[in-house]
Inverse folding.
């Protein structure tokens, strides 16, 4: 084999080695990124909402609550007592014009 042919094969071999090295490095980076993505997905899945059907009251609990409500003494309906505060606006203003000015907070400038 001639010297130029050997040099050409050496260059081709080095180029192939470099391409394989780059490919291996890219594969390693992709694998690392894929594992990070899986970790992030697992973290998101942990934040699921609580299933309402799992924490729903059982029929027995509902029956007990109904029995407890039935056992309570019945109370008469309460009537609302109006507030017995005096209306300071009506008590303090005797002039109808002053009442009008007081309600709308009109300030006279001198």
């Amino acid at each position: 084999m001639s010297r130029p042919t050997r040099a050409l094969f050496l260059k081709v071999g080095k180029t192939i080695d470099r391409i394989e090295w780059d490919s291996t490095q890219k594969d390693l980076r992709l694998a690392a990124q894929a594992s990070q993505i899986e970790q992030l997905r697992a973290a998101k899945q942990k934040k699921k909402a609580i299933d309402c059907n799992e924490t729903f009251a059982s029929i027995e609990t509902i029956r007990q609550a109904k029995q407890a409500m039935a056992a309570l003494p019945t109370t008469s309906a309460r009537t609302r007592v109006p507030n017995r505060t005096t209306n300071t606006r009506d008590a303090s203003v005797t002039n109808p014009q002053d009442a009008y000015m007081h309600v709308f907070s009109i300030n006279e400038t001198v």
Summary: The chain has a mean pLDDT of 76.
